[in-house]
Design a protein that fits this description.
The structure is a single chain. With 149 residues, the protein is α+β, with helices and mostly antiparallel strands. It is 20% helix and 38% strand. The protein has 3 helices and 8 strands. A 3-stranded antiparallel beta sheet has the order 2-3-8, with no helix packed on it. The two termini are 17 Å apart. The N terminus and C terminus are likely disordered.
């Protein structure tokens, strides 16, 4: 299933620790890019996932940077619903995990955690390969303050 997801993770963040970038096509909109924590590598997140839900789902982070994060999940029979379609919850879990880890990688100095307030997913088609990959491009708007998809 290909999906388009929207995720809002609200956190109190310090705008002093972010880059403010005015948008040429809309001067009233300023996008705030959060500063990436360099210790937040794919290995860091994959180690953090051990013995927790992301590992149980077969989710792994494959790339992380200031501007995007990528993760993947192997599609196995245990992720399918009895109707022979990939269970939507498994795709949402992959999207939520990648977006959550992207938020962790961009928490401000002193920031410890966040929580998902809203997650909306639209499914367009079903997957045709044995691996499902998510790429999350990061933008954070000042109002409303959000991080992720």
């Amino acid at each position: 299933m290909a999906c388009a997801s929207q995720r809002r993770n609200f956190a109190n963040f310090d705008l002093q620790n972010s880059l403010r970038v005015p948008q040429a096509d809309n001067p009233n909109l300023t996008i705030t890019q959060m500063i990436y924590r360099p210790e937040c590598t794919p290995d860091y997140f994959n180690e953090r996932s051990k013995n927790y839900f992301p590992e149980a789902m077969g989710i792994s982070i494959t790339d992380a940077s200031q501007s995007y994060m990528m993760g993947e999940m192997m599609i196995i029979k245990g992720l399918f619903a009895p109707n022979q379609y990939l269970h939507a919850g498994s795709i949402v879990s992959l999207a939520d995990t990648v977006a959550g880890y992207a938020c962790i990688a961009h928490l401000p100095q002193g920031g410890k955690t966040f929580t998902t307030i809203e997650l909306k997913t639209n499914f367009i088609a079903r997957p045709k390969k044995a691996r499902f990959v998510v790429r999350l491009d990061l933008l954070t708007w000042e109002k409303p303050r959000m991080c992720g998809m």
